[in-house]
Amino acid sequence: MTKIYTLNEKSIAEAVSILKDGGLVGMPTETVYGLAANACDGVAVAKIFAAKGRPQFNPLIVHVNDMDEARAFAEFSTQDEIIAQKFWPGALTLILNRKEDCALSDLVSAGLPTVAVRIPSHKGARALIKACGFPIAAPSANKSGSLSPTTPAHVAQSLGDAVDLILADGACAVGLESTVVDCTGDRPYVLRPGGVTAEDLSEILGEEVGYDLGEGKGQDVKSPGQLLKHYAPSIPVRLNAIDLEEGEALLSFGGIKFMGVKDGSAASNLPDDMVKHLSKHGDLYEAAANLFAMMRALDKPEHKAIAVMNIPDKGIGVAINDRLKRAANS
Ligand code: TXA
Ligand code: MG
């Protein structure tokens, strides 16, 4: 049985000792649960790839407690400092050039000359990183290609005994992975949309920041996580549903009063286990926080597919639609 302990001083101390010994810990963050290892310990980082079944070419995010720790292994331009100042701690990951001969394992960067860095805002995550005294490599704590975990139970279901200890701190507040921004070129652009949008970045920098979400199919994409089929339930996902096929489960956004099923019945009469409401009032943040847990709940072999209602493509809705498109692409 995987150990799941409520996050507190005592469980953090145990997690620190596991991480120091090269083990793996399920770590809560404000975005999704991470699978943590000492980012300077190549063997421990290799265990992450094994536990997730993650392709070796897909690099990991390094989590730190403050800017000084980040500056020890990554190069920040003036512009990068401005972005970090504004959005850290928080759901934003910066891709920066690695400092040569830094203490990080090469495997963290999957051999690239760059590194992904983030200061999370989750207090427990920060307390853990601080107590460790070394940076923490942490991808989402799920099997590669499946849904990211937003509760401790999701981590246990997905990774089982491959994780030595899970620190439990309830459901993640944001519920979607961080925005990934490539800062290594002439101007920054968003590789993975999240709560911090390209518009937010443009406003701070006073110049247009675009998206490069990649239509990539393998190793040639800029961010390997852009692989098209990525956040995938095991049954089909159908987007922008305005009515339902028989046997489909419904992931709703806003009201469903006027939605019909093709057999002539009303969606509002579906049994509870066939409907989940991302947000009844059309709140995009609530929808983001619910997305992965609700997709999991509807991902049952007895359902023909998950039909998802249209989500407005603005603000964090861009990130929700990005994950949904990947889930639907099979
Ligand atoms: O919210 C999050 O970001 C969560 C929590 C645990 O922090 N972590 C997370 O990690 O989502 P992961 O490994 O599932 O996604 C990291 C993404 C991947 O798409 C990866 O390809 C990209 O960041 N990435 C990491 N290092 C990179 C690099 N050096 N260059 C380009 N992309 C990179
Ligand atoms: Mg992931």
- The number of helical runs is 9
CATH topology of the largest domain: DHBP synthase
> Helicity level, as a percent range?
25-40%
Q: How many domain modules?
A: 2
How many whole angstroms does the radius of gyration measure?
20 Å
What is the overall pLDDT average?
Answer: 91
Small ligands present: threonylcarbamoyladenylate, magnesium ion
Class based on secondary structure composition and strand pairing: alpha/beta
Please tell me about this protein's structure:
This protein is of the alpha/beta class. Helices cover 28% and strands 18% of the residues. The protein has helices at 9-20, 42-52, 67-71, 78-87, 123-132, 152-159, 198-205, 284-298, 317-328, and strands at residues 3-6, 25-27, 34-38, 61-63, 74-75, 92-98, 114-118, 136-137, 165-168, 179-182, 189-192, 210-211, 237-238, 249-253, 275-279, 306-308. Strands 1, 2, 3, 4, 5, 6, 7, 8, 9, 10, 11 and 12 form a twelve-stranded mixed sheet that branches. Strand 10 and strand 11 (189-192) form a beta hairpin. The longest helix is centred in the C-terminal third of the chain and has 15 residues, at 284-298. The structure holds threonylcarbamoyladenylate and magnesium ion. Magnesium ion (MG) is lined by residues 139-140, 148. Threonylcarbamoyladenylate (TXA) is lined by residues 29, 31-32, 34, 58-61, 93, 95, 109, 112, 114-116, 118, 138-140, 177-178, 180, 191-192, 223-225.
